[in-house]
Design a protein that fits this description.
The chain has 457 residues and is α/β, with parallel strands linked by helices.
Length: 457
């Protein structure tokens, strides 16, 4: 892809438009409701940053808002149903507040069938914009408020021709100790079940110098939990490799933890594993999505690794990184998945010994190869397999956590008697420690997906 970075002139134009809108929006409030992944959360913080630059104050909820933006996800049908349901609930609010502006952005409106649905079934939605239009939000608001018609700002270019990176967007972070830092956008993998390349475009990476400048600034401001984001961070292509970038980002003074999401197994290198092992500031949590334990199903998913290759990678991580916590994603009921394929998944889960699994029932996504495959699995059978996998993981997770009882762990408090380990495990504390504070705690009790602990004075 060429010309992926917006120019200084383009950025300056949006800033100037934002400042020109301040008299119009001063005294009004905006609310951004975000659904989906951490990348969506990061996008939502930047949208709110621009809204504040335009003069809006941050609303506490939709009822308090003069402008509502729904920042959407399209990865699963369930997510889209939730988003459309939320949009539906705003109809009555719009009826009582005639001047309320409602917009929809993110991955969902990047799909043309959803755009048509919004146009037809949600006439009270005033505007929508796609994933590569975030940096143009001031311009969008200027046009929406200056016209009488509904407006849609959707890029209909092929997936390999759209998508930009805009540095310098203002950010309104939701936390004063936890921060998202996007290092790349888009995806080149084209897993047969996934819409991400179609709705977010092809991979494009920020400059390493810009990423490190942002991380350094966050550390200087006292942020303690920083996550580097990308659909596949291992594919990052800046001036540095991803392991080099991760090590550099973990090289600043003070105590903080550095996480990353998400790592594709085919690209998780020995250099990355070593970088984590060598630096205690890098989280002991390694998320390694497997999706299936069957080589046959993995091939049908276009994952580009075998069961055996994945197991070797997982073992390398366990052997190299002390006390590592490994989590994964698994899709059950993929088209054509046989009982034998599912049994392979159960045995892989047993072999790896995950601390956490994020299990999803396969749902067809329009425009993907898998949606057109024969042998779609009946929903009842998908649910049965989901239940079997969940029961197995509950047992394994409890055993893993029980082994931690009596150990002293470094905890980062989230406030309200709760915190997390470096491996991202949830810990219930015996006293309320201010959010963003590190402390040592002895694990006293284990549950499948959380730990109880006593603060060590």
């Amino acid at each position: 892809m060429k010309d992926i970075f917006t120019t200084d002139e383009q950025n300056k134009k949006q800033t100037e438009i934002a400042l020109s809108l301040v008299p119009q929006f001063c005294g009004k409030k905006a609310f951004v409701r975000t659904f989906g992944c951490q990348q969506n959360e990061a996008d939502g913080e930047r949208l709110m940053g621009f809204l504040q630059l335009c003069g809006f104050a941050k609303a506490s909820d939709e009822n308090d808002a003069d402008l509502i933006i729904i920042n959407t996800c399209a990865i699963r049908e369930h997510a889209e149903k939730r988003e459309l349901s939320y949009a539906g609930c705003l109809k009555k609010l719009k009826e009582t507040k005639k001047d309320l502006l409602i917009g929809i952005c993110g991955c969902m409106p990047q799909q043309m069938h959803r755009v048509e649905q919004i146009k037809k079934s949600y006439p009270y939605v005033d505007f929508a914009f796609g994933t590569d239009m975030n940096y143009r939000l001031p311009e969008i608001l200027q046009k929406v408020t200056g016209g009488s018609k509904r407006m849609f700002f959707i890029n209909d270019l092929p997936h390999n021709e759209f998508g930009v990176i805009s540095e310098g967007m203002p950010v309104c972070r939701a936390s004063d100790y936890k921060a998202w830092v996007s290092i790349m956008y888009g995806c080149n993998n084209f897993c047969t079940y996934c819409v991400v390349p179609h709705v977010r475009g092809r991979e494009r990476s920020r400059l390493s110098s810009d990423v490190l400048c942002e991380v350094k600034d966050l550390v200087a401001k006292g942020y303690k939990d920083i996550t580097l984001l990308g659909q596949n961070v291992n594919s990052y292509k800046g001036e540095l490799t991803f392991p080099e970038l991760l090590s550099a980002a973990a090289g600043y003074g003070g105590e903080y933890w550095l996480h990353f999401m998400t790592s594709h197994p085919k690209d998780a290198s020995d250099e990355l594993i070593k970088a984590i092992a060598d630096n205690q500031k890098i989280s002991r949590h390694f998320h390694l999505p497997v999706q299936s334990g069957s080589t046959r199903v993995l091939e049908a998913m276009n994952r580009r690794y075998t069961r055996e290759q994945y197991l070797a990678k997982a073992q390398k991580i366990k052997d190299t990184i002390k006390d590592v916590v490994i989590s994964t994603d698994i899709i059950v009921g993929f088209p054509g998945e046989t009982d034998e394929d599912f049994a392979d998944t159960l045995s892989l889960v047993n072999t790896v010994g995950y601390d956490m699994i994020y299990t999803f029932i396969y749902s067809p996504r329009e425009g993907t190869i898998a949606a057109k495959m024969d042998s779609q699995i009946p929903h009842d059978e998908q649910v049965r397999r989901f239940s079997l996998l969940s029961d197995l993981q509950n047992e394994l997770a409890l055993a893993k956590n029980t082994a931690m009882v009596g150990r002293t762990e470094r905890i980062l408090s989230e406030g309200g008697f709760s915190g997390r380990t470096s491996g991202n495990k949830i810990v219930a504390l015996d006293c309320d420690i201010p959010a963003g504070t590190f402390c040592d705690a002895e694990i006293t009790e284990a549950k499948p997906y959380s730990l109880n602990a006593k603060i060590k004075k």
